[in-house]
Every structure is written in structure tokens, then in C-alpha cells.
Description:
This protein is an alpha+beta fold and 102 residues long. It folds into two domains: 1-31; 34-102, no CATH class. It is built from two helices and four strands.
Amino acid sequence: MNRRDVGLIGIGIVLIGTFVYFGFFYGETTGEVVGSGDGTKELNGHYTTAVCKDSGYCQDYVVYCNNGNVVEMHLIEDSDYQHNEDWVDSRSEEERTLCHGR
Length: 102
């Protein structure tokens, strides 16, 4: 390997490192909750939660909230689970209320 090759490899490593650094720290993540992309949806929070029936059948959802109201819910695929017959949801009523405090 000659000096030119070593220099090109060094420059390549620096460029890749720069792209990775800026992509990681300054990429798509803004730290703010954003709308649907078309600017029509005002959101002030989203989170995931299990929605369970009395039968013990639960599914996970991503829940989007605005001022304590559900704006949208998206099912997380393959997240369903059937608990035993004697299962009791240990979350408080407040914790089970969608968008409470959000």
C-alpha cells in the first residue's frame, strides 16, 4: 500500500464517521411529537399500552393523544396474548384509562 492509498482510506474513514455522527445526533429524531406528516394532526404525546378484555385477552397498541383524548390508535402486530383464566390486570383504573394525563 502506498501513501496515496493510506490517505484515501483515512479520508474515507473520516467521511463515514462524520456521516454517522451527524446522522445519529442530528437525524430524524427531533425530540418533539409531530403530526401525521400532512400537518393536520396536533399531538402532545404518544405511548404504547396493552388493551385487555375481561377474558384476559390483551393486545398492544401505539396510542396518540391530544389534550387527554385519543386521536389515533395503531395495533402492534403479533402483540396479542391470552392470559390464564384467573388473571387480573394489576394496573390501576387510572393507568388503564387511555391518554390519562397526556
